[in-house]
Amino acid sequence: TKEAEELWQQAIMNYDKAVQLSWNSPQALNNWGLGLQELSAIVPAKDKQKIIKTAISKFRSAIQLQFDFHRAIYNLGTVLYGLAEDTSRSGGADNSPSDLYSQSAIYVAAAHALKPNYSVYRSALRLVRSMLPLPYLKVGYLTAPPADDPIAPHKLWERSQFILNHEELQQVNTSESAPAKSNGLVEKTKRFIKVDVADIVSVSTCSDLTLPPGAGLCINTTHGPVFLVAESWESLDGWLDAIRL
């Protein structure tokens, strides 16, 4: 109803004020996200996706302040699941429904890992378990330079598949470029990028002009930085969270 929408709008304004007063409070950001999630359920369809994306950003901000904040992690999983449902019915999102379902499952599984005794998390995990990119934490595409030349010209960067598990982020041999051949001989064995999770110091977005166009990802490691480019800024958020969690 219009009255309910106005009440949630007022509540969201109060959450906004709470965050301004306590900008480093993950709980305040989580509450703001929950308010937006509730509002998205009652507004006209044309307004829904913008509100949902804002809710996603609030949950992500809460997680960035406290990586083990299981409530925000779970809430991010539920809002992504809802977005996947909406996208499968009507389209319109930057990511495919299957990618959104997979992201949702990762966050629900992470929340369950932090609080395995929570019955709500157990039930949710049963619902989304089949959507997990098992045996990995995340599978997707990133544009990467040659492993032996991180500052190679843009034309030498390739879009290829990466997998993330508990031990490493690994480029796999599924590059979209066909293997180069010369005089009937296959080019010498290609090296692939591998980053050990134990060596990661931090991960962040990167808008360095020396990178190819797209959403830049910087992984700072004990051996130096690794630069990659995600397919979109939303896709980049998924990689950032998966590596951090």
Brief rundown of the structure:
The chain is α+β, with helices and mostly antiparallel strands and 245 residues long.
Question: Quick one: biggest sheet?
Answer: 7 strands, antiparallel
CATH topology category name of the largest domain: Serine Threonine Protein Phosphatase 5, Tetratricopeptide repeat
Strand content range: 15-25%
| CATH architecture assignment of the largest domain | Alpha Horseshoe
Q: Indicate the CATH class of the largest domain.
A: Mainly Alpha
Beginning-to-end CA distance, first to last residue: 38 Å
Output the radius of gyration: 20 Å
The stretches of 5 or more residues where confidence is low (pLDDT under 50) are 175-187
CATH superfamily (homologous) name of the largest domain: Tetratricopeptide repeat domain
According to DSSP, the number of beta strands is 9
Query: What is the topology, as strand order, of the major beta sheet?
Result: 6-3-2-1-9-8-7
Which descriptor suits the 3D outline? Answer: globular
Average pLDDT for all residues: 86
Please estimate the helix content.
40-55%
Total individual domains: 2
